[in-house]
């Protein structure tokens, strides 16, 4: 009987092409986006600055053809979607909005509002929810000289009733708590389908519980290192190349799955390295968001790594290494949620610990659900095991390629 153990590369890549046509819309719908605002409130008047990435601005259908009107249209959008209210009354604009000089890849706007004399103040955000339902907005408020507070706003929790601390109060009663950052980390990993796809790609090859534990530990240690380094200010990579490299890491691990389960010939490693060198050439000509030297380095790495796997007695035992290396990249991606929040120094450790713990809880919950299912399927025989491996890897590979191309060249 013919089984999937004899699945030919032509059949695999034909199925992959079909998957690639079906998945891009779903994949694009779940990219995590963030924006940030800083409020300075004195009495019933407030000054606000808002920042977001140019990549997120490009999500708006009206942005591409706006031309010289883009500044005005974007200012109007931001000032109507990010509000300060006094009770049920909107605090109207008293000045602005206007664009300010910003760091490369960012946009920055400012405006002022004046509130009615009565009514408790609250910040409300609907920013980018029309183009990204998973959007997070980080608001930081300093009121009448008191300690600045922070809160994460989302589609689920769009409003923040502001407390009224006395001047000099050092208790951030209205700030996001440790439990809040724990929940944010869980939400981030569960809605971060690119990170989940990478974990799934690592698990699809199967293996005993000890091997899975080593792989998960490698990934966890690595992304914890770069998450901490980034949030604490020791490393600040550009978000766009990081997001593109996350997509590439998913595609490479999925391709490795297929190679390890097949004849382990030279074709796939050669094609992978050649494509990366081609992309490096395009980057050298000014195309895309990833530096040419990075892509050339990845081409060399992939050639060496596949060569190492070919000589290894048990290639699966090396999976922890690839999980660690690419986990470093994923950690930079996790950090993007926190690095621009403008957290004061005394709250960095709490936010970092809570968020990272939440990421781990969410990740372990997913593994606890997926791994037993994969093990049960493996016991049904080689046919079922290889079907899950090949078709699962094909789907993950299609997602990784789509994420990489759309983020690097989109």
The sequence of SSEs as H and E is: HHEEHHEEEEEEEEHHHHHHHHH
Total domain units: 2
Q: For the residues shown, what is the average pLDDT?
A: 82
Assembly state of the chains shown: single chain
Radius of gyration: 24 Å
> How many DSSP-defined strands?
10
How large is the share of residues in beta strands? Answer: 15-25%
Helix/sheet category: alpha+beta
State the separation between the terminal residues, measured CA to CA: 45 Å
Outline the structure in words.
The N terminus is likely disordered. Helix 6 runs parallel beside helix 8 and helix 8 runs antiparallel to helix 13. The protein folds into 2 domains: 245 residues, no CATH class; 142 residues, no CATH class. The chain contains 13 helices and 10 strands. Strands 5-6-2-1-8-9 form a 6-stranded mixed beta sheet. The protein is an alpha+beta fold and 410 residues long.
Task: Describe how the helices and strands are arranged.
Layout (H helix, E strand, L loop, with lengths): L8 H14 L1 H5 L5 E9 L2 E9 H4 L12 H12 E5 L2 E2 L2 E8 L5 E9 L6 E5 L10 E8 L5 E5 L5 E3 L16 H14 L1 H12 L4 H23 L7 H23 L5 H18 L7 H20 L7 H17 L9 H34 L3 H28 L1
Parallel strand pairs: 1-8
Antiparallel strand pairs: 1-2, 2-6, 3-4, 3-7, 5-6, 7-10, 8-9
Helix pairs in contact: 1-13, 5-12, 6-8, 6-12, 6-13, 7-11, 7-12, 8-11, 8-13, 9-10
